[in-house]
Amino acid sequence: MSPWSGKLPSPAQPSSILQNLPDMGPLSPDNAVDFILSAANQFGPSLTILATGPLTNIAKAVQRSPDDMRKVGHLLVVGGAFKTGEFNFRSDPKAAGLTINSFLNTILIPLETCEQAKSPPGFLAGLRDKGPFARFYSD
Known about the structure:
Blueprint: H1 14-19, H2 32-43, E1 48-51, H3 56-64, H4 66-69, E2 74-78, H5 87-91, H6 93-100, E3 106-109, H7 111-116, H8 123-127, H9 132-138
Parallel strand pairs: 1-2, 2-3
Helix pairs in contact: 2-3, 3-6
C-alpha cells in the first residue's frame, strides 16, 4: 500500500463529488469481476473504486487481469479494524490480504473512522439522480 498523494474534495463541498460522478447506465448483466475490469479499461486512472464489502471480486479482478487493474486510479477500502475483527475482512481474509498487498493504490478506511464519519446534509439525497448504482448506495 503506497501513501496517497491525491486530494479528496472537501467534505463541505459534496457537490464537487456529485458533479464528477458518471452515470453508469443500467445495471450490468455481467458478473462483478467483468464489470470491474470493464470500468478499469473505460475510465483508467480516473477510476476510484469504493469497496464497501468483502474484497472477493476485487481480488479476482487483480488475479484475472493485473494489467487492466493497474489502470485503476485508487481503491478506497472500507474495512478492517484496529480493535476488533471486522466483517468485510473476516468474510474473505484471503481476498483482503491479496488486495491490500497488491500493486493497487489502496487507501484503507478502518471501521473506527467510518463510525465517526457523517455525510454532509443533502449529500446522499443528491446521489439519487446519478444512476442506479448511486441510487442503491444512497438508499
